[in-house]
């Protein structure tokens, strides 16, 4: 029994064999066995541990938005045909990753990340149930990782602090990381196209596919009931990625 409110020793327990009342602690109880040994137990430890757990949980739930993971949609595709279309249009990223330039370590990391994008996207669209939200997170995270690897492959002078911050926010804010490194890649692509006229065609294709892909991405979010918008976004993004591979070949 754990005393809760009483801090005074009980007179009725004095002299009873096997019990020794400690007046200075309302939560501590020392038991004396027949050999005279003293065993102390603390019945308030579990309560204190539970309180600490609740405090930690409350602080975690009130963390700022920048530390919250991406909110994943649990709804599936509208029908089987759309699922098949989304899976099939994810495969070009695997093919592009296999054929991407691998002339140095940064290019190899980018090529492998493209393969990861295709695999994660295919698994997400083929999934159902509770596992779907985790695969959606993996899909977004792989896209963000690919943009990081691409900007690194194009710009070896990327600040180390920026890359460290991107790696830190990658699991919790993949869309933000994707936006930052996509912007850096667009600037690098435009500069290269000005310096090398043979890249202007690839850059124009990249600009058109990026604008179309952005419009389809927004439309897919605004009109979620419209079928095949997501598959169309996959194709536009794949065209943009193929033009980036042309850039890495230089």
The chain-level structural class is: mainly alpha
Order of helices and strands: EEEHHHHHHHHH
Compute the average pLDDT: 79
Question: Largest sheet at a glance?
Answer: 3 strands, antiparallel
**Spatial gap, N to C terminus:** 78 Å
Helical coverage, percent range: 55-70%
Strand order of the largest sheet: 1-2-3
Describe this structure in words.
There is one protein chain. The chain has 250 residues and is mainly alpha-helical. Helices cover 62% and strands 5% of the residues. It has helices at residues 45-61, 80-88, 91-99, 105-126, 131-154, 160-169, 174-195, 200-222, 229-248, and strands at 19-20, 28-32, 38-42. It has a three-stranded antiparallel sheet, with no helix packed on it. A hairpin with a 7-residue loop joins strand 1 and strand 2 (28-32). The radius of gyration is 30 Å and the shape is globular. The protein starts with 18 loop residues before the first strand and ends with a helix. Mean pLDDT is 79; it is low at 1-7, 24-36, 38-43 and 69-74.
């Amino acid at each position: 029994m754990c005393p809760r409110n009483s801090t005074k020793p009980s007179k009725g327990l004095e002299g009873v064999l096997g019990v020794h009342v400690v007046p200075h602690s309302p939560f501590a109880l020392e038991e004396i066995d027949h050999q005279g040994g003293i065993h102390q137990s603390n019945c308030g430890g579990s309560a204190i541990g539970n309180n600490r757990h609740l405090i930690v949980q409350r602080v975690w739930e009130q963390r700022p938005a920048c530390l919250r993971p991406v909110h994943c949609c649990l709804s599936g595709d509208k029908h089987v045909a759309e699922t098949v279309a989304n899976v099939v249009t994810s495969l070009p990223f695997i093919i592009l990753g296999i054929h991407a330039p691998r002339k140095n370590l940064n290019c190899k990391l980018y090529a492998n990340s493209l393969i990861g994008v295709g695999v994660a996207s295919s698994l997400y669209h083929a999934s159902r149930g509770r596992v779907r939200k985790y695969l959606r997170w993996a899909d977004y995270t792989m896209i963000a990782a690919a943009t990081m690897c691409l900007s690194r492959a194009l710009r070896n002078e990327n600040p180390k602090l920026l890359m460290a911050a991107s790696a830190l926010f990658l699991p919790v804010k993949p869309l933000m990381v994707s936006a930052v490194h996509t912007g850096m890649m667009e600037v690098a692509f435009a500069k290269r196209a000005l310096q090398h006229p043979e890249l202007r065609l690839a850059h124009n294709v990249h600009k058109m596919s990026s604008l179309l892909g952005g419009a389809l991405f927004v439309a897919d979010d605004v009109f979620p009931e419209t079928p095949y918008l997501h598959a169309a976004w996959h194709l536009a993004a794949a065209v943009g990625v193929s033009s980036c591979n042309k850039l890495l070949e230089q």
